[in-house]
TrEMBL record:
Entry protein name: VCBS repeat-containing protein
PANTHER family assigned: PROPROTEIN CONVERTASE P
Pfam family, one: FG-GAP_3
Cited SUPFAM superfamilies: Integrin alpha N-terminal domain
Compositionally biased tracts (Gly residues): 14-34
UniProt keyword annotations, A-Z: Signal
Taxonomic path: Eukaryota, Fungi, Dikarya, Basidiomycota, Agaricomycotina
Location of region: Disordered: 1-38
Organism, as annotated: Mycena albidolilacea
Length: 487
């Protein structure tokens, strides 16, 4: 095997190990023991032919350790002895990848090293894998209009579990840590459609840490009160505790008019309660001992009575300053409005930060999703919106102001066929670098645009021909999330 940089066609015979460019084609570095490996030194735009058992191949330019060959073959064909590895390529940080058998999961483990830490150890799968025959409309009788699904680490062991509020109550499927899940178990015979009489159109369910111990507790906005079940730390929960006689349906709070959230407003690691009422924003602070303070109005704005409607004006409670205390941001008729958290139980006067992303500028809830999420890795949330024909961003300056709106991708928009009622889009960190990326469940496939970290996004790339609308994945029947299930 010729390792010269001038030779752009490389041949690996037998696929029995060895390191390209280092002489022998046998033996060599076996990495983590999952198969033979190939390293391509200082080569790019090369074509590699493989014979024998070397079925997986992904190579990069070792000079930058980031430039990856987009594909080895223009199409996937099981009859060929080589395949392309979808996803994860941008974040490998190295040019050595194990060669493993092409199987149903199509998701090999990557070697762990100082240059390839834990979070990069598993690339995206190129085929769906059944991990649990439950929590679905077919298996279990779960209905989107009756039951709530969550993902969350309810045992504080670093693994995301599947949590669902079903007919009988709260059910949990524990993450086994190997990509599989255990059978669902009825953990709480309450908060369910039949077990407790909870209704999606009247009552809200949350998982949040209200004690500061790192465990997710259950928070429920019920008929006449707010209820909490503390997490015991082993996947079970304590008896329901009534903490506030407010924020409920009986006090006039409506799901369609009054958004409510459970989020840390003080920076102490314990979630507080905040709700957008008729004429004010109301807060109940967490005392840290299992009790909550009396409900108080903190801003006479952002309410239904001031013309803020859920059908027109998205509102978020998120940290905009990086101090660990959530602020309030709303997309109004003409602008984006913010009220910063003072950190002492009060909020600043509402101010306009951008004259865009509003209803009058053509942004519609039913057409244009908007998110407030950290795109730069500085701990301060930025603004991103999926517009008519492009994705638009306004970066947070960190001083209470935002930059001018800029177009970052001409895709994922209404004009490209993306629909709110058919194609969920998420803005979430897929690479572990602290910069949120864009991922969308489209008509025929799942697509991604990776955040370059410098104010721009990479080209839209297809990850997998599955989980899509044309394959029967509809919002009326199924729920989709983005989660790291391996750690």
């Amino acid at each position: 095997m010729d390792g010269s940089n001038a030779d752009r066609t490389w041949i690996v015979n037998g696929g029995v190990g060895g390191r390209g460019g280092e002489g022998s084609g046998t033996g060599g570095d076996g990495g983590n023991g999952e198969g033979p490996q190939l390293t391509v030194e200082d080569a790019e735009n090369i074509l590699i032919h493989v014979s024998g058992d070397l079925n997986f191949l992904w190579t990069g330019n070792s000079a930058t350790q980031r430039d990856i060959i987009p594909q080895v073959l223009p199409r996937l064909d099981d009859s060929e002895p080589w395949h392309r590895l979808l996803g994860a390529a941008r974040n490998l940080r190295q040019s050595v990848v194990p060669a493993v058998a092409y199987d149903a999961s199509f998701s090999p483990r990557l070697p762990r090293s100082s240059s390839n830490p834990e979070e990069y150890s598993t690339p995206f799968s190129s085929a769906q894998t059944l991990v649990l025959a439950d929590f679905s409309s077919v298996n279990g009788g779960w209905r989107v209009d009756k039951h709530i699904h969550f993902k969350g680490d309810v045992r504080n062991i670093g693994r995301v579990n599947i949590v669902g509020f079903g007919d009988a109550g709260l059910l949990i499927s524990r993450n086994n840590g190997d990509g599989s899940f255990g059978p669902s178990e009825l953990t709480v015979a309450d908060f369910g459609y039949n077990g407790g009489g909870w209704r999606i159109d009247r009552h809200l369910h949350f998982l949040a840490d209200v004690t500061g111990d790192g465990l997710l507790d259950i928070v429920e906005f019920g008929e006449d009160q707010l209820l909490i079940r503390r997490n015991n730390g082993n996947g079970t929960f304590q008896s329901a505790m009534r903490v506030i006689d407010d924020f409920g349906y009986g006090q006039g709070w409506r799901v369609e008019n009054h958004p409510r959230s459970v989020v840390d407003l003080t920076g102490d690691g314990r979630a507080d309660i905040i709700g957008f009422g008729d004429n004010s924003v109301w807060v109940s602070y967490n005392n840290g001992n299992g009790t909550f303070q009396s409900v108080r109005a903190v801003i006479d704005d952002f309410g239904y009575g001031q013309g803020w409607f859920s059908t027109r004006h998205p509102r978020f409670v998120v940290d905009l300053t990086g101090d660990g205390r959530a602020d309030i941001i709303g997309f109004g008729d003409h602008s984006v409005w913010v009220s910063y958290n003072n950190g002492n139980g009060t909020f600043q006067s509402v101010r306009c930060v951008i004259d865009d992303f509003g209803y009058s500028e053509g942004w519609r809830v039913e057409k244009h999703p908007r998110f407030v999420v950290d795109l730069t890795g500085d701990g301060r949330a930025d603004i991103i919106g999926f517009g008519e024909n492009s994705v638009w961003v306004s970066y947070n300056n960190g001083d209470g102001t935002f930059q001018s709106v800029m177009r970052v991708i001409d895709d994922f928009g209404y004009g490209q066929g993306w629909r709110v009622d058919k194609h969920p889009r998420f803005v979430v960190d897929l690479t572990g670098n602290g910069h949120a990326d864009i991922i969308g469940f489209g008509e025929n496939s799942v697509c991604v645009s990776y955040n370059n970290g410098g104010g721009s996004f990479g080209p839209v790339t297809k990850l997998i021909d599955n989980f899509a609308y044309s394959g029967g994945w509809t919002l009326e029947k199924v729920v989709r999330y983005i989660a790291n299930i391996y750690r």
